[in-house]
Fold each of these.
Amino acid sequence: MTATLNGHRGTNGKSATRERAPQVATREAVAPICLLPGPVALAPRVTAAFHEPIMYHRADEFLPLFERVRGRLSAMVGGKPAAMLVGSGTLANDAVAATLRADPQADNGLSLVTGEFGGRLLKQANRWGLRPRVLNWDWGHAWHLDEVEATLKTMPPGGWIWGTHHETSTGVLNDLQGLVALAKKYGQRVIVDCVSSMATVPVDLSGVYLGTGASGKAIGSYAGIAFVFANPSDLAHLDAGNIPTYFDISAALTTTGPRFTVPSPLIRALDAALDVFASPESLAARLRHIAELGKYMRNRLIDAGFEPMAPAAIANPSIVTFAPPQGMSTAAFVAMCRAWGYLVAGQSGYLAERNYVQLAVMGCVTQSDIDPLLDRLATIH
Ligand SMILES: *Cc1c(COP(=O)(O)O)cnc(C)c1O
């Protein structure tokens, strides 16, 4: 991406550069390139869709749009039906916790924690009065399925296991299909947070009880629409009267159109973002782009002397978590990148506390967007 100077022209239309020396366009002068794991860099088509006129959420034209988006989301995860709520990913996970609270097996759960977001799921469960067993691994580790199996052997069947597919804080991608296979063997239900794995790697929720996602990460739209994936028939045993109205996933799944007010710009923008994933071929091409760009970024960071927290074998390609150079705080690293024209993660408490920063390629970015940053980082370590 090249920054351009727009004129500095006087009222006579002539260049004003005789009066004032032309300034060399710098990255600082243009919008920074976003390498955050949400918000992400948006495609112009997505922002254009967002700015279209607002539609009434009960209008005849809106319902097919809403249903098409649900269908597209569902197709992305192997066909599991999608409910959409207005909110961020945390709301989707609260809806899961509310659903579990109403389950006859609410007390028969297992929580898998490998970082910040797994920890948040556990806290959300606790706030809903759920007290699952907990398996906790150090940052940078994936679920150890042998330990999970040992715990499953002690649990009565019919319970649940809840964890993050991609643990965004560490960049570790957990073995979802391995967990699903184990759960099946022991008669347990898997619940998985796919907020940051959807649209970065193939996600198949067909063997999962409940899954969650959100619009504002690698799907490439604005934050604000939360997804819960489930089969309505898997929820038939629940008494909806015990579930808060907004979190009634069964009702959301079986209603055509939204149950409550939805801002149409969020749905239009999401629909435009989903164009990229609309066919199996385009989805595969997008995942290939992320895999290649992420691998390139990771290798260049390694060449520059940085050490990714997630080992290559268990890393999600879309993000690298690493420590700033010796003696540099996360705040200083973030500010340095900002001065170079990049938004990078490090400001969240959980990263700053542990002195980690992150570069993510979840959004609309290419190699030429990230090369200048990688070139500079190669000179400072
Ligand atoms: C971002 C994220 C969430 C949700 O965070 P919000 O701030 O509510 O969008 C949940 N789980 C994971 C794994 C995430 O990366």
Amino acid sequence: MTESYDDWELATRAIRAGHHRTAEGEHSEPIFTTSSFVFQSAAEAAARFGGDEPGNIYSRFTNPTVACFEERLAALEGGQSCVATSSGMAAILATCMALLKSGDHIVSSRSIFGTTNVLFNKFLAKVGIETSYVSLSNLSDWEAAIRPETRILYAETPSNPITEVGDIRALADLAHARGLLLVVDNCFCTPALQQPLALGADIVIHSATKYLDGQGRCVGGAVVGDSQLVGEEVFGFLRSAGVTMSPFNAWVFLKGLETLQLRMKAHSENALALALWLEQLDAVERVHYPGLKSHPQYDLAMRQQKSAGGIVSFVVKGGREQAWKVIDATRMLSITANLGDTKTTITHPASTTHGRLTDDEKAAAGIEEGLIRVAVGLEAYEDIQRDLASGLVG
Ligand SMILES: *Cc1c(COP(=O)(O)O)cnc(C)c1O
């Protein structure tokens, strides 16, 4: 990255990092909607193509608006390099394709984003890269699954939808003792709540689609890490494979980042209030939220994260039938599997996002029939609670 932002607090980096003002003196970051760039001379073109001189060539490789987003997110995560991608899945694909080869092996936490599962089990398996799944919070499980061919430990914490929390520092120590890389999907927390690189992780993955945008407008992703792994290797895959972020989407994400800290704080406050309320209802069997003292990794979560985040899930008495009733009784909440939006969303994992799992897989992932996931938004807390109460109280 071109500048050091060490002197700036996170909130300042989120607003100012990465913008190199042009000669026009613009205050807000400009959108460079251009596919290619021109050179002063044939010699300059040759130097750029030859890699002897830095600078833009073509927007599949680099674009100033995308670069501004990359520099800002790198500053927030505390990484040397960031590569922006067309989606969160593209970020995971680019990381795996850049750093793994046929015959390599991944150890991954079991409760990861469903499509990540499909990518690992169907497509990486097809090119000879195998994945073993372990319990996120059980370190000896991770250790036992490591083979001579293992290259990557892959974790998502807190997990979706039951918010299990993994110990990033312990996983990083384990990875490094065995010469492996720790990759952490930081989608649920964002750098506003948790910075995996500072805890020892080697690579951070983002679906910018979620909290980085925060307002449900664009699909995008990013990979953050050091200048070799990410700046050279992941970037090398991206420029050839073309899973590039568009300048317009980068601009939307830049604007999202400016309010990231405020939003994550507000998501966490609403979610904690909701979790505390749910926990004392007769209709509710159990609540999963890392900010509750009843959460099995409460101490770890409070040490590792600034706050507990916006995702709350809970099990209602009466299984699927009652869970569907509670969901259908809401009037304001959006019935959708998306998360990381200002709008609160509600979903039944067992019949949607996790519907393809076998009964055994559901049991291992804690996906009970009565489980409901709420991605708590930024509406007034009273309105969120009242809407959920219609199916839960009285
Ligand atoms: C949504 C999501 C992804 C995938 O991101 P897309 O932008 O939808 O491709 C990956 N990981 C997690 C945790 C997610 O929630």
